[in-house]
Every structure is written in C-alpha cells, then in structure tokens.
Amino acid sequence: MKCKEARRRLSIFLDNELSQKEALEIKGHISQCVFCAKEAEALSAALGFIKELGTIEPPLDFWDNLSKKIIPQEERVFSYGFFRRVVQMPVPAAASFILVVGLLLGIYLGNALYLNAQGDSSKVAEAGADNFFYLASLDDLPSDSVGGVYIKLAFQK
Amino acid sequence: MPDNDHSLMERTAQGDLSAFEELVAKHQRLVLNTIFRYIGNQAEAEDLSQEVFIRVFKFAKRYRPQAKFTTWLYRIITNICLNYHRQKKRKPSVSLDSPVFIEGEELPRQISLPSDTQPDVILERQEKDSVIREAIDSLPEKQKMAVILQRFEGLSYGEISKIMGCSVSAIESLLFRAKQALKEKLKDYLN
Predict the structure, then answer these.
(1) Which CATH architecture has domain B1-96?
(2) Tens digit of pLDDT for each residue in A57-83?
(3) Chain B positions in Cβ-Cβ contact with residue A45 (cut-off 8 Å)
(4) Could you tell me if A55 lies within 8 Å of chain B, comparing CB atoms?
C-alpha cells in the first residue's frame, strides 16, 4: 500500500469504520512507515484532544419551560379556537357583527317609527325602556294563528 | 432501547403528555450537548433544544418508526443547527456569552466548578475548552456537524449519512478534511 492511499484510509481506520482486512493492511503499513505512523499519532492526538470538550447539564426547569410552550398550543385549539377563527377571518366576522347590530337596530327603529306614525310618541320611550325588543307585542297575535299557539304553549305553566 | 422510544412517540402522538415528558427527560442531555458543541453558547443551545422538542411534538403524528428514533432526532437537531448558522450569517449579532476582550486579552469567564477546585485547574480547563471550541468553530459547517456526530455522539458513517442526507463516501471525505484541519489547528497544543 502506498502512503497516499494509507493516509486517506487512516481517517476511516481511526474511526473504526474499516473492515478487518483493510484495518490489518493499514496497521501493517503504519508499522513499516515512520511518516504514516507519525501522521496516525498526530491525528489520534488531535481527535483525543477535542473529545475533552466539556459538557453541560440541562437546566432543572427545562421541562417546565418546554411544557409552557407546548400545552398552550394544544389548549388554544380547543379553548380559544373560536376566538382565533374570528381573528383569522376579519371580513366575515365584521359582516356578521354588522348584520346582527343592523337587525336589532331595525327592530327598534321599525317599532319606534310605527308608534310615532300612530301619534303616540310617549309609548316609544315607555316601550323602549321596558322592553327593547317589544316582545310584549307578541301577546297581540291572534290566538288561533301558528304564532299565537306557540306563544300560548311556550308560556303555559 | 429504541422500541421504548417508538412507543413513547406513539403515545405522544395520541396526546399523552406524560409519554412526551419521559421522552424529553431521556434525550434532553443528548440534544442540548450536541447543539452546544455545534454553536458553543449555552443559553442559545437551551433555546434551540426546546425548539427541537417542539418539532418532535408537532411532528409526532407524522412520525413513522422506520429507523432508530435517535436518527430522526439527530436529523431535526442537524436541520435546526444548520438553519441557525444560516440565519446567524444573514443577521450577525453579539452574544452575551461570547468572549469579552480587553486590550487584546480575553476576560476570564466565571464558571461554576466545585469550590475546592484549584484556580490553576479552572484556568487550564477554560483554556482547553477555548482552544477546542476555536478549532471546532474554524471548520466549515458540514464538517463541524459530521465531526460532532462521529466523535462526540459515536455515530457510524452510515448513520451520519442518513442524518445529513449525504452518501457514505461524502461523509468519509468531510471527516478526512475536518481531521486534517483540526490536526493543523491543534498542532501547537499537542507538541
């Protein structure tokens, strides 16, 4: 074996990655070649030296810190899922909000305008203060209509 | 025991946090020290170790026990370390852990060694660590990772090739060049 080939394989030999046969060839070459023996010694010393690099211990609160980062992720999916979806969809969320507010405002204004048109403005303030949604007006439904039957059943004791 | 790791991963995938805690306790030292050897900064190594375990947790459902669990774990560590290096190159910053120089002299670092440790022993340890650190840091990133996996973690060329996504001959070549560079860098300390 030539020195060039021996030196290329020396690195693999020092890592115990050569087959038994190849390792014996390298050992044979080193025992006969002073230069390659010196090279093997220098490489071995350098590799032994770097292995002395100190180690560190994980901090005692490693798991505590890690679990704080992981568990909220899990919980967010269940506990804050709805809120997160709302934040992620600002346009549909804003449209739904406007629709609900518009509907409530429409009920109120519709009733107020109706009472005003009938010339009984005192009832507007009175009804508004007592019942924003004018639910009392449901009492006026004809008793044999579907709505009337439903109200009767719903409030039956 | 690799089988135990696989079953812990299976339970983690089903949402069993106690299994994940056991897995973390078992491998946290390996993860932390591999990263610490690569980046040389304890605080950042701790942060990146947490990042490794967050990824393990996140990908637990996709994990398939085809190889050893640690091979998969080392692959995550390698990706995180190489990404860290790329980001660091793009946005260089000054670390609070980096050596402080005053008039060209490095300020000695306070380290926690047993109180009965002799000052000269502490100094020797610090100097040795600093020399080794400098030699390892001088290596190109892939050579550095291959050396850490081979020398410190005791992995075979075959395992390193799977982790780093290279052929075995590419690993042989990386390690050959790394060892030559380390030998040159350390020759003054070894004579």
Answers:
(1) Orthogonal Bundle (1.10)
(2) 999 999 999 999 887 655 555 444 555
(3) 186, 190
(4) yes
